[in-house]
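Let us practice reading a record.
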Amino acid sequence: GGAAPKKGRGKPQYAGGLVLEPKKGLYETYILLLDFMSLYPSIIQEYNICFTTMEWAKYKTKSTNPAEDEEEAGFDGLPPDPENIDDKGVVPKVIRTIINRRVQVKQLLKQETDVGKKQQLDIRQKALKLTANSLYGCLGFSSSRFHAQPIAALVTAKGRQILQRTVDLAENNMGLEVIYGDTDSIMIDTKCTDLKEVNEIGKKVVNECNKLYRTLELEMDGVFKTMLLLKKKKYAALVVNEAKDGTVTLTKEMKGLDLVRRDWCGLSKTTGEIILDRILSGEPKEVVVKAIHDCLETLAVRMRTGEVEVEEYIITKGLNKSIKDYPDAKSQPHLQVAKRMLTEGKMVNTGDHIPFVICNRVAQGGVAASSTAATGEGDKGEAKDGEKKTEA
């Protein structure tokens, strides 16, 4: 959803999607998630954006001093919208062909009963969706033969305008509260506890928004029963799954939380999941707080008495480049372990994930070999082979 990056890992050369400042907190009334279907391909069709429908080449001169925070950073302004939106350009036509084909495949998918064929059709419709979305990426990617940065920038600028317009519609025209938005989606706090009423609110917003466009289509992407919104691109929620017979089940969804990171040990992840489940449970606040305190106190006792297996303390970090290319290798545990592994004649390559354990006892240089390296077994608190011992 963001802008195409420069070569390497530099900052984007133009502004990407609009990300609203989240209204952080724990929400215990239903949250609506509304999402534009294939936003960027739909924008290209909606406004007939193409090489063949607009003058864009003169806008690709790069500024000598691009302002990083400005929408026009890295190029001299946005090209004007195409004047003729009826005589379709090449790119909109290609996208429309792909999307129409995907609609046909999805219809076949609904009718198919054979499990194997259903899987094949599902893969095909996903591939078609990816192909349609990738056409915008070709415009923004500097190494693409179809690279046209001003056109890509116009697409993302339209995306920001559309998302803000949708927020204004929901808040100013319909009296709803938007608590977050990111590129092609918004979250609305319905302040309702009746699921039927929530669905009606969603339908109203979708209908009002879709009246404004010919190709762009807002849809209800989901309903959250409870949600913990922490910051941009970081939240956890219980997703409502409503069957045709009216049966409702809940599944947990996490986006951007540290619980899914490899550089947290298993014990931290497990404990975090337990605490998160309590927070999202909908139980009274005092019950939740007591349960979390009890959980942490029990865990502390298990850790002090050595009941937690050493495997639960293992942290894994990846090597993003060659060890010699890290300027601060001494300060990073996984690099110290990787060096030791090389010394012992083991293969260590870029992309490998190095496991280690933080321990209390420190050997010279902060690294100690395991006394049980040959068997691969270690006592609690001892660093296993290929793991680091350093001050906790």
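A brief commentary: The chain has a mean pLDDT of 84.
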